């Protein structure tokens, strides 16, 4: 079977010695978790953080927008181009998945609302409880514990979108539009080692109570692997139905 061509829009480039130089970048973390599966992709990474977005949607079979420590509420050199790209994907019904920053950017581009959480940072491992099911969400599970690290969150879904999952601190933790858009506020691609390093590096910017809660939650077992399988199923269905 011919490999699916997956375009990964990388919206982060960590230049820190502590994190950026010690771990693979966002695109590689997604590649690592996808490569655990039987289905393999042909990857193309777009350095969206530097302004690169796909010019032609037919360049790839499907697309993924990564997370980022940047806020979607701020203006970046790539903001307008990314918003336009998301809207083009929506019109063309091109399979598109967004995680964390990508999840929020998709919501904004399609007319939803993103705001800073009044509770501050949400960090650690958090359970996403799925209140709706789609055909690509197999194996079927009612909830998935996944790594999270965000301060902004989607507070209003775009018209035509359906909430799929909610968490204790995030009402719209996952949503879909039709069979061509799928998102998560979480980071299925994170590992325990990476999350621990990021927490060590950023805890000075967080309240002590948030740090304590994050470290306690890290005793849970994250299950990003299942979400990655759902995403692969989503891409395959979307391509077949295109």
Concise structural overview:
With 242 residues, this protein is of the alpha/beta class. The protein is built from 6 helices and 11 strands.
- Fraction of residues in β-strands: 15-25%
Spatial separation of the terminal alpha carbons: 18 Å
**How would you name the oligomeric state of the polypeptide chains in this document?**
single chain
Task: Assign the CATH architecture.
Answer: 3-Layer(aba) Sandwich
* Count of beta strands: 11
Low-confidence stretches: none
Count of individual domains: 1
Find the CATH superfamily.
Answer: Class I glutamine amidotransferase (GATase) domain
Helix content: 25-40%
CATH topology (fold) name: Rossmann fold
- Tally the helices: 6
Q: Strand count, sense and closure of the main sheet?
A: 9 strands, mixed
Shape: globular
Cα radius of gyration in angstroms: 17 Å
**N-to-C series of helices and strands:** EHEEHEHEEEEEEEHHH
Give short descriptive properties of this protein:
nine-stranded mixed β-sheet, Rossmann fold, 6 helices, 11 strands, 25% strand, single chain, 242 residues, alpha/beta, two-stranded antiparallel ribbon, 29% helix
List the helices and strands and how they pair.
Layout: E1 4-9, H1 26-34, E2 41-46, E3 62-65, H2 79-92, E4 96-99, H3 101-109, E5 113-116, E6 122-130, E7 143-150, E8 152-156, E9 161-166, E10 174-177, E11 181-184, H4 192-202, H5 208-217, H6 224-241
Parallel strand pairs: 1-2, 1-3, 3-4, 4-11
Antiparallel strand pairs: 5-8, 6-7, 6-9, 9-10, 10-11
Helix pairs in contact: 2-3
């Amino acid at each position: 079977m011919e490999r699916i061509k997956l375009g990964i829009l990388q919206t982060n480039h960590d230049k820190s010695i502590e994190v950026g130089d010690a771990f693979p970048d966002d695109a590689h973390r997604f590649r690592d978790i996808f490569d655990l599966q039987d289905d393999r992709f042909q990857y193309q990474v777009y350095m969206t953080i530097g302004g690169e977005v796909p010019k032609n949607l037919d360049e790839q079979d499907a697309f993924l927008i990564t997370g980022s420590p940047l806020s979607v509420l701020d203006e970046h050199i790539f903001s307008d181009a990314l918003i336009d790209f998301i809207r083009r994907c929506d019109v063309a019904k091109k399979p598109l998945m967004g995680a964390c920053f990508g999840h929020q950017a998709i919501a904004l581009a399609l007319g939803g609302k993103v705001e800073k959480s009044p509770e501050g940072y949400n960090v650690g491992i958090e359970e996403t409880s799925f209140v709706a099911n789609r055909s690509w969400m197999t194996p079927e599970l009612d909830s998935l514990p996944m790594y999270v690290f965000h301060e902004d969150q989607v507070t209003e879904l775009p018209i035509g979108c359906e909430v799929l999952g909610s968490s204790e601190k995030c009402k719209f933790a996952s949503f879909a539009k039709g069979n061509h858009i799928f998102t998560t506020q979480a980071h299925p691609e994170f590992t325990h080692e990476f999350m621990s390093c990021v927490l060590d590096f950023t805890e000075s910017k967080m309240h002590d109570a948030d740090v304590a809660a994050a470290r306690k939650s890290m005793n849970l077992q994250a299950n990003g692997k299942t979400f990655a399988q759902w995403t692969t199923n989503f891409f395959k269905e979307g391509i077949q139905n295109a």
